[in-house]
Write a structure and sequence with these properties.
heterodimer, A: 253 residues, elongated, B: mainly alpha, Rna Polymerase Sigma Factor, Chain: A, Arc Repressor Mutant, subunit A, 63% helix
Chain lengths: 253, 164
Amino acid sequence: MNRKTQLAEDDLQAYVDGRLDAARRAEVEAWLLQHPSDASRVAAYRQQNDALQALFNPVLNEPLPLQMYPQARHRNFAQPLRYAAMLGGMVLSGLLGWGLHGAEKSRQPPMAAMVRQAALAHVVYTPEMLHPVEVGREQEQHLVKWLSKRLGSDVKPPHLAEAGYELMGGRLLPGSQGPAAQFMYQDARGLRLTLYLSNKPADKGEAAFRYAQEGKVSVFYWIDGDLSYALSGEVEKADLLRVATAVYQELNR
Amino acid sequence: MDAVITEQIPRLRRYARALTGDRSSADDLVQDTLERAWGKLHLWRRGSDMRAWMFSIMHNTFINHIRKKQLDAVSMDDEALEIPTRATQEDALQMRDLSSAIGKLAYEYREVILLIGLEQMSYEEVAQVLGIPLGTVMSRLSRGRERLRNIMAGESAPMLRRVK
């Protein structure tokens, strides 16, 4: 291969990618008129670029999986919790001696994993402008059918208009007890709450309302039937309790 | 600071999807890339090109996944052993087969073709991201595109060259 054809090959590629200045572009075009086999290569390569864009550009608009958000980094998110647990453990063992240490460990709140996942899903998805939900409320029937099928039990979003919140829609999420669901609500001011549902752990029975704080997020959680529920919001405890009560009543109507 | 990384994720996912041809391997690749990037963020020079930095981390992670056999990929060095599969007529016609055609390319070609054709990086950026000379980028681009064309055309006999 002599120097001239080698040059032409790099220029041909750069021509495909639109990276030549006007003068060299004209040279390449003149060459292509004389060399139909190179012209058909150029056409094929351009088609490759176009096809790649057409095939893979939709990935750009897919909602990100939960674990790809920086908030999901274990270290970041769990830190306050872990410190609190450590501090609690230290105070206890200081007062009562090391004898209680093991007992304290096994008495970890049973629903902690579910609560954390719910709060995490809340902080990740509520700020979304474009994709706050996967399926919007205009397709509520479909949403109910889909999520019920994936969770393996009847899942439906409670209507909370009386409490001042409108359903926006919902999404499917990974959870420690298999697939989980999140419904999102918004009030007139644009404040968002999320209701997270997952299958209850096998060893747990029904449970009354409990309250937890995860960072800035307040969570009320309970078990009803086969499902555990967590209502999350960045609101006052009393306000959240009012809505949690409405959720419970609405689901048991 | 995390925002500068998060901003790159959709592009990384697009590239990874094309590179691995499979949603879950792609997201594993992205996830591992992110873990590394988060851990090394203090090494990133403020004001330098975040996209190039992230893509070079992804390149290293990708090579690692291949070495650890988490990903199946043929290298240029293995090509002599490669047994060409004959694509069907339908294959050549349907666009989703572009994805499987890319999968038949040695990964060194795949990376160059995708960074340029999909990610639209300049040739110099690609050289930087992959840590190879510009001339190597150009020769991989030229060979890779021609191979991809042949695969898409259904491996028509006269194009089946094994010479390097």
